[in-house]
Write a structure and sequence with these properties.
Helix 1 packs antiparallel against helix 2 (about 20-30) and helix 2 crosses helix 3. This protein folds into 2 domains: about 5-120, Nuclear Transport Factor 2, Chain: A, CATH 3.10.450; about 125-230, Roll (Nuclear Transport Factor 2, Chain: A). The chain has about 230 residues and is an alpha+beta fold. The strands form 2 sheets. Strands 1, 2, 3, 4, 5, 6 and 7 form a 7-stranded mixed sheet that branches. It has a 6-stranded mixed sheet with strand order 9-8-13-12-11-10. The longest helix has 16 residues, at about 45-60. It is built from 6 helices and 13 strands. About 25% of the residues lie in helices and about 40% in strands.
């Protein structure tokens, strides 16, 4: 059994752990020493800050309110990245009070290097949905010169698209999109810090059953996307 196999159990356990010393040790094992955790408005970097973040959440929700964090057993990983959902419930009740989504980057030992945490569902923001639509439409653009021009307005020159089959430069990945395949926004896009994420629904060119997934993109300092991760859910 690898660290990735137990990632979800270890992730929710650290937020539910009542003992301070055990919780801190679990934090140190779950994240790398310089690991970073993003929420919508805050950033926590390094073991001390991460321990304070987890302790704050424990005292507010678990120790203070009797709530419990649990995962949905839906981790999807490829390369060094993964996505999953978690829930907050009243104790062991099946009632769900809150749902979250995390995108993580892992080191070679399966520890979290980067952890972006979102609340679900995303609130509608027209500009974000329009951006997601533009990104998804690139794969349907049949004119190579136009596709290249549109991609240059969104991605850095050396941007990579990483999916479950390969890690490629964005233009190569887009050019490999099967003719007639349609990928459309599903729900709403959301953003925090340097990241954008959105769910999509894929209609295969051969008329097969539709599939769903999620894209997660990271911007550089110039506002262009440097990394694009795609997961089929």
């Amino acid at each position: 059994m690898t660290a990735t196999d137990t990632l979800l159990d270890r992730y929710v356990a650290v937020w539910n752990e009542p003992d301070a010393a055990t919780r801190r040790a679990a934090v140190a094992q779950l994240w790398t020493a310089d690991g970073v955790h993003y929420t919508q408005t805050r950033v926590f970097r390094g073991t001390d800050a991460l321990d304070a973040r987890v302790t704050e959440a424990y005292e507010q929700f678990v120790g203070g309110s009797g709530l419990l964090f649990r995962h949905r057993d839906n981790l999807v990983t490829h390369h060094d990245a993964g996505v999953f959902n978690w829930e907050m419930t009243p104790g062991k009740s099946r009632d769900v009070l809150a749902v979250g989504f995390d995108f993580v980057l892992l080191d070679e030992e399966g520890r979290l290097r980067v952890d972006y945490q979102f609340n679900e569902p995303p609130a509608p923001v027209a500009e974000l949905d329009e951006l997601a639509g533009r990104l998804l439409a690139l794969g349907r653009e049949g004119d190579e010169d136009l596709r290249r021009k549109q991609a240059a307005a969104l991605y850095s020159q050396d941007a990579r698209l990483v999916d479950d089959s390969a890690e490629r430069d964005v233009l190569t990945a887009l050019a490999a999109t099967p003719q007639g395949e349609v990928r459309r926004l599903y729900g709403h896009a959301s953003t925090q810090h340097d990241a954008v994420r959105y769910a999509w629904e894929l209609f295969p060119a051969d008329g097969g059953p539709a599939r769903t997934g999620v894209d997660f993109l990271i911007r550089g300092e110039d506002g262009l996307f440097t990394a694009h991760y795609r997961f089929t859910i």
